[in-house]
Amino acid sequence: MSKARKGGQSSPKRWLGLPLPAWIGALGVVVIIAGVVFGSQSRKASAFTAEVAGSPRLKVDKELVDLGKVPLGTWVEASFDLQNVGDGPLKILKKPWIEVVEGC
Q: Whole-model pTM above 0.70?
């Protein structure tokens, strides 16, 4: 004959020391986090539409930077946004070549 607990309640089933409902809740949290992470990655990938099919293509936001008259010895900076608008991987194999034109 088995002894009944006070109030007639049985203890919840345990797995690896934790109650089964705790494991189910933890599993639910993991599934939700995985859905958010993998769902956001697939949205990012599908948001891009290639302008060129079959190869990579580098797109630069500006081809010319006019800094006006700059005194000799003064440091100047210019920035460019580069984007691969093709559907292939873009590989830059050599150091970029930059032409500085003075007096134009």
A: no
